Amino acid sequence: MGENIFKIDEREYILPGSRACQGCGLSLAYRHALKALGQNTILTIPASCLTVLHGLYPITSVEIPCLNCTFASTAASASGLVAGLKAIKRTGLTVVAVAGDGGTYDIGIQALSGAAERGTDFIFVCYDNEGYMNTGTQRSSATPPGALTTTTPVLTKLEPKKDMLKIMEAHSLPYIASVNPSYPRDLYEKFTKAKLFKGTRYIQIYAPCPPGWAYLPKDTVKIGRMAVETGICVLFEIENGRFRFTGRSKVLAKKGKRLSVADYLDAQGRFRQMSRDQAVQLQQSVDEKWEEYVRRAVE
Predict the structure, then answer these.
(1) Is 23 contained in some domain?
(2) Which among 18, 29, 48, 103 is least buried, having the fewest CB atoms inside 10 angstroms?
(3) 34-52, pLDDT tens digit by residue?
(4) Spatial distance between the Cα atoms of 259 and 280, rounded to a whole number of angstroms
């Protein structure tokens, strides 16, 4: 990578006045992702926060063709688009499926795994806001331990967060990446790079959510940076099995110094009932994952 930041496409594919929440991490990431993907793209999305951002038919705030699909069928919908384009001999188009963690980790994992196993030629993007935010902040398997949701009203979530990136790596995909809207250059370059590969590609967006995570909308970029500085979110890519840190995470790996997870937890109201033991366990889990990545990293 190394593309100059000033070469980012100046065209805007999201029009002013979308229905996204103030400070939405997804909308920041989506803006730069669409710039990288360009107009020769066909999108498919399930019921989600992104459906809200796109708007109600026949009006939309996004200037790229999009097929709305059912919650469980995002990857199946993308597979159908790929097959349809092949049948009519249309080339030069990138099919991109975008779903939240609910539509990826949980409801949509069967169709995604099937498409990945077949190597269907599309990019699957998961924006991970760590819960079912569009329907009222319910717990998903991406919700971190210690977080409060509307379906954990008495106790916080006790189970660890599912490692979807590792699950997708087990499918031997040609390209996998982790991105964060607080680092738009890194995000833009990875989406640009993903277009160069064939087969199923997977990109996971860390997507801060002000109402679901209980922080002020003005702090979205700050929360995203704290996640990287602590190792909660690690910026990396896996290209044909080769893992490497990117961006700020690459710098942190060389320096060997990260912030305490406690700083990140204290900045969000969703962790207000997290126990001391849970905080200690989360720090240990983050440290272990970080060390695993350090051992794997290549220049």
Answers:
(1) no
(2) 18
(3) 999 999 999 999 999 999 9
(4) 14
Rg of the chain over all Cα atoms, to the nearest angstrom: 18
Strands 236-239 vs 242-245: parallel, antiparallel or unpaired: antiparallel
Whether residue 192 is contained in a domain is answered as yes
Residue with tokens 């991970």: 128
The model scores a pTM over 0.90: yes
Taking a C-beta distance cutoff of 8 angstroms, is the pair 124, 97 a contact?
yes
CATH code, domain with 266: 3.40.50.970
- Tokens, residue 65: 């063709």
Residue 37 in any domain: the answer is: yes
17 located within any domain: no
- In this structure, which amino acid lies at residue 174? P
DSSP string spanning 267-278? T-GGGTT--HHH
**C-alpha dist (Å) from residue 264 to 19, 53, 63, 288:** 28, 27, 35, 17
Question: For residue 146, what are its two tokens?
Answer: 């210690």
Range of the domain at 111: 28-296
Distance CA 29, CA 181 (A): 5
- Tell me which residue has tokens 């982790």: 178
User: Which pLDDT score is estimated for 255?
Assistant: 87
pLDDT of residue 5: 47
Residue 11, burial from CB neighbour count under 10 angstroms (0-12, 13-18, 19+):
exposed
Q: How many domains does the chain have?
A: 1
Report the DSSP beta bridge partners of residue 99. 126
User: Residue 1: which pLDDT band, with cuts at 50, 70 and 90?
Assistant: very low
Please give the structure tokens belonging to residue 40. 């020769």
